[in-house]
Amino acid sequence: MVKAIATPNIALVKYWGKKDGQNMLPMNNSISLTLDEQLKCIADAEFADEKDEFVVNGKPANADAYRVLEYVRKTFDTKKYFKIISDTYFPVAGGLASSAAGFAAIAFSIAKLLGEEEGIELTITEISRIARMGSGSACRSVLGGAVEWLAGNSDETSYAVQLVPFEEIGLVDVIGILSHEEKKISSRAGMQQTVKTSKLYLERMKTVGKRLDIVRKALKEGDYETVLIEAMKDSDNMHACMMDTKPPLSYLNEKSLETIKRVNMLNEREGRIVCGYTFDAGPNAHIITESKNAAEAEKLFAGIADEIIVSEIGKGPRKIL
Ligand code: PMV
Hints:
Blueprint: E1 2-6, E2 9-13, E3 18-20, E4 25-26, E5 30-34, E6 40-48, E7 53-56, E8 59-60, H1 63-76, E9 81-89, H2 98-118, H3 124-134, E10 146-150, E11 159-164, E12 171-177, H4 187-197, H5 199-221, H6 224-243, H7 254-270, E13 275-278, E14 285-290, H8 294-299, E15 307-311, E16 318-319
(3R)-3-hydroxy-3-methyl-5-(phosphonooxy)pentanoic acid binds next to helix 4.
């Protein structure tokens, strides 16, 4: 049996739409920061006798999860069945990117099991591809630090690469839990609808390449002001595309909007960009800032957050047993 731990990631330049649902190929590259082990998933993998068994957070897994195991057999030429047990250990219920951490832990544990017991050694690129089949953004959680998912144009060419190792990034993600509700429309269904119906999304596709170039360069150079400015613009742009979807999708709540206001007020007062907000498909707020400003960022959540988690940049998955 193999046990592996993985953590979520927060996208600075987002993925919201696929060009190939079967192979889970995204419309555009995306860039994220891997988070630390305060938010973690642990997956146990072992071989099963006659059929796959898959339990996620104590419940039978869904079809996406079983599809990952089919993919592994087909792609890496094994006839083995798997027994997978995956659990999320977040200090809060719901609302954070648990599927990214979950599928990264699952992919990592399967890869280590195949390596140790079958001599099938998988590269990190191959592990990223396995995670991608479970949940697109999970392919970025197989690496630590700042990570880019290369969209590619086939199963073999769509995977994540590291841009900057964790120890070279002076940023933290101050996460404000603003709601415990599960989202009503899944990312998968929501993004499909956006691609189908939003005109604004066509505009996004014309500009996202430029933003990726700017953020990639700024992360490598440690130009965090630029990173934060572009992260805020990209989050606003993705949420605008969601609103432009027919029928409109809105994942933010009043407290999310209040957070945006407070971040803008702080930056205006200071006359520079101290903090940058970003939101995935949910109301919980991520305030990215330099480590030295973490306390200042925490104060922005006064009276609106049920809980605050200050996450450093994570090292990526590891085997724990
Ligand atoms: O990987 P999914 O299907 O959970 O989609 C994630 C999409 C966002 O979190 C909204 C953006 C991203 O790039 O992580």
